[in-house]
Q: What sequence folds into this?
């Protein structure tokens, strides 16, 4: 790493460092009310509760992560299959897109009451609620991915005898992969949002629940610790995902990744 | 079947089929009538609630909050987006913050806002604002950086310097992407707002659905859900209608299809 | 600078630094362009010709040396550029594109419209004033680009491979149109092209540049009068000159290809 890149990275950090320093100062001098804005050092110190063996936050983090992972895996598995299946005919493709476009702007968490009616306050209800938006996104992005394949390739493939499952596995799936990967990244974000919101409202555990409980008893510092954990999870699911995806799929580095 | 008729058919055949199926299954009580209500009944409930109940005021509350949140997000997001797209220094200062906070689900900040500013309108407007703001600033910044260098050279060579650079060159140059970014910003604003109302408010569409859930008023719950969906639809139709007016030169250029989704809290 | 010299470059060098690497695009370039002269710059890829043009346009500053453009009257824009990929503003109509320069100089709308229509007429595009760029063909877009530059009535016209992106037939036609424009108003022009025959067809002088770092290898004076025509292309002198220039250029082009490497 050359001096130039090091300098570049340290400039990049200077903004947040400045802000944290200013926050620390303003909080300690009580210009900012420490009850609302505890100093960053206090928050960092408090985050040791993550590792507290008894009531540790680690368990909650684990549960949230688990929920997100299950949601995203289900969304991808179902979404890609449905997405590809639906493209066999313009009738199914267009019709499905219309329905999904209607469902998409509805925040997933709104379906929680409905699902708890049917399934009770169970983990299944939570996960299915979280699944809604990511699933919609995966189907839409898969469809877009299939549509983006240059028709020439499809003609060539058919000309060389690709049919049925072979056609889908060897031609359609790889061809729509870039769009699918982008969809996964976005779905991951929505999964996190949904899981946190559901935990805040319904669940007995998880980071959202932790945030909510501490809100009820006004333990602000603990709330900040929870926020910090959620923020880190958020970063992992976007920046982290990008890093992994770029390794596995090198062509991504060229394309527009931001939102 | 002619071209447009065919496309129309393809677009609406399945939705209409689903509606019909739903009606049949709910009215014949194949689906548990406690949980599955026919659309007709939902429609009736909606009208009733609008006329007699709180639905009207809840809807207006949500719209009002949305208006404030989006207006602020648009102004701040576009302003800072252009600034950080144009001047490296501002980008260096703001980018680490915007890029680290963008993936944070803003709904998680709602409790904090409520503690700081109370349970009133501001907390919910702020939460929705936060989502829209980050969305818009990032997409605006990206669109400024994406203007072709040759076009910039042409702009400068033909006299678009000083303030004219921004008014006569940059702003129209990024207008299509800006429009798209604002559309997405409004969509995410709406989603976050409704979710925030659901989680923490006692007024607004989101809270109405939450209340209906608590009271096991299934028909009201459906009414709320359908309304939210319709609201989203209206917003996207609004943008589709405005586009030829605001971007007349785009007519005839096929936009990149779906212009899909974006995440971030 | 003597009275008839329009553009004077003296000892101009330009170095770009990206990251930890430094690239010298131009080295010690000195050149004079006279009033009404049409000077072509020919050279291999990467020889810095585009950079040279942009230095004259004031879009970059030279790392060393000076660039001077003589002003014939106050308020007259120094340069107007024509780009290879037209660089027309997509949000403006054809006429508004051509008016863009004058309007930025506070020329009244009425006057600017007259100027625009006049230039569009010279390029045979009078009917297309209200069209948008995306509705035009590549050749038409380039012509709008030329009209836009002409509308500026600048001290010097800078053209960066304006015909490079066009098909051969449109190219040939536009070469003749540019020649006609030359004959009508005798602008001072600095013209970059890859095509040697194009340079010989249009210019008074051809400047040959070396591979990177770009230096002037040779300047070739052409004897053809201003009142030449398309038939020039069929003459022996034309062929001999074009071939001669290529002979000079060949090793520079090969050197440039070697530079690019695997």
A:
């Amino acid at each position: 790493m050359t001096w130039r890149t090091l300098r570049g990275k340290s400039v990049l950090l200077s903004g947040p460092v400045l802000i944290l320093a200013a926050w620390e100062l303003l909080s300690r001098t009580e210009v900012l009310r420490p009850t609302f804005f505890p100093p960053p050092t206090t928050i960092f110190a408090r985050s040791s509760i993550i590792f507290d063996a008894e009531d540790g936050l680690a368990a909650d983090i684990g549960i949230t992560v688990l929920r997100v992972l299950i949601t995203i895996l289900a969304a991808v598995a179902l979404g890609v299959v449905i997405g590809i299946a639906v493209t066999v005919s313009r009738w199914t493709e267009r019709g499905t897109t219309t329905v999904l476009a209607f469902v998409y702007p509805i925040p997933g968490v709104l379906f929680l009451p409905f699902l708890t009616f049917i399934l009770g306050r169970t983990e299944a209800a939570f996960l299915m609620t979280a699944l809604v938006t990511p699933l919609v996104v995966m189907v839409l992005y898969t469809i877009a991915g299939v549509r983006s394949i240059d028709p020439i390739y499809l003609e060539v493939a058919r000309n060389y005898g690709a049919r049925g499952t072979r056609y889908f596995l060897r031609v359609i799936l790889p061809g729509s992969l870039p769009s699918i990967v982008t969809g996964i990244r976005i779905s991951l974000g929505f999964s996190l949002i949904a899981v946190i919101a559901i935990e805040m409202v319904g669940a007995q555990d998880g980071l959202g629940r932790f945030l909510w409980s501490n809100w009820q008893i006004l333990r602000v510092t603990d709330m900040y610790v929870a926020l910090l954990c959620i923020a880190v999870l958020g970063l992992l699911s976007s920046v982290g995902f990008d890093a992994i995806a770029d390794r596995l799929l090198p062509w991504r580095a060229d394309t527009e990744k931001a939102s | 079947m002619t071209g447009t008729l065919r496309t129309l058919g393809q677009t609406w055949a399945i939705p209409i089929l689903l509606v019909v199926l739903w009606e049949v299954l709910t009215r014949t009580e194949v689906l548990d009538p406690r949980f599955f209500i026919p659309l007709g009944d939902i429609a009736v409930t909606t009208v009733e609630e609008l006329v007699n109940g709180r639905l009207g005021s809840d809807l207006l509350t949500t719209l009002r909050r949305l208006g404030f949140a989006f207006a602020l997000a648009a102004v701040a997001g576009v302003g800072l987006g252009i600034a950080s797209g144009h001047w490296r220094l501002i980008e260096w200062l703001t980018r680490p913050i915007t890029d680290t906070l963008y993936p944070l689900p803003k709904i998680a900040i709602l409790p904090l806002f409520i503690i700081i500013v109370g349970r009133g309108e501001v907390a919910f407007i702020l939460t929705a604002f936060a989502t829209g703001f980050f969305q818009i600033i990032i997409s605006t910044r990206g669109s400024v950086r994406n203007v072709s260098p040759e076009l910039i050279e042409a702009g400068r060579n033909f006299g678009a310097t000083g303030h004219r650079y921004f008014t006569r060159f940059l702003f129209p140059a990024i207008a299509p992407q800006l429009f798209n970014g604002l559309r997405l910003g409004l969509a995410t604003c709406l989603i976050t707002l409704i979710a925030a109302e659901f989680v923490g408010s006692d007024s607004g569409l989101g809270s109405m659905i939450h209340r209906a859930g608590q009271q096991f008023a299934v028909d009201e719950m459906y009414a709320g859900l359908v309304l939210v969906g319709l609201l989203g639809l209206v917003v996207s139709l609004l943008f589709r209608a405005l586009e030829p007016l605001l971007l007349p030169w785009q007519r005839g250029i096929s936009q990149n299809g779906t212009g899909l989704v974006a995440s971030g809290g | 600078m003597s009275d008839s010299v329009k553009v004077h470059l003296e000892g101009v060098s330009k170095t770009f630094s990206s990251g930890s690497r430094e690239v010298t695009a131009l080295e010690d370039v000195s050149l004079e362009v006279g009033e009404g002269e049409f000077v072509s710059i020919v050279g291999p890829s990467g020889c810095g010709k585009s950079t040279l043009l942009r230095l004259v346009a004031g879009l970059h500053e030279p790392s060393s040396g000076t660039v001077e453009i003589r002003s014939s009257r106050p308020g007259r824009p120094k340069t107007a550029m024509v780009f290879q990929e037209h660089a027309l503003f997509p949000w403006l109509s054809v006429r508004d594109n051509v008016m863009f320069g004058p309007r930025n100089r506070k020329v009244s709308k009425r006057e600017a419209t007259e100027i625009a229509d006049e230039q569009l007429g010279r390029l045979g595009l009078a009917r297309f004033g209200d069209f948008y760029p995306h509705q035009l063909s590549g050749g038409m877009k380039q012509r709008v680009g030329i009209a836009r530059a002409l509308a500026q009535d600048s001290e010097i016209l800078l053209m960066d491979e304006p015909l490079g992106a066009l098909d051969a037939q449109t190219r040939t036609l536009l070469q003749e149109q540019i020649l006609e424009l030359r004959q009508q108003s005798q602008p001072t022009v600095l013209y970059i092209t890859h095509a040697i025959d194009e340079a010989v067809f249009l210019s008074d002088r051809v400047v040959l540049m070396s591979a990177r770092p770009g230096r002037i290898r040779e300047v070739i004076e052409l004897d053809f009068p201003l009142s030449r025509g398309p038939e020039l292309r069929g003459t022996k002198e034309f062929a001999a000159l074009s071939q001669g220039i290529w002979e000079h250029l060949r090793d520079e082009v090969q050197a440039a290809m070697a530079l690019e490497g695997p």
Summary: The helical segments of chain C are 49-57, 94-104, 109-122, 138-150, 168-185, 196-202, 236-260. The longest helix of chain C spans residues 236-260. Chain C has a mean pLDDT of 90. The beta strands of chain C are 5-18, 21-34, 38-42, 64-69, 79-82, 156-160, 188-192, 205-209, 216-221.
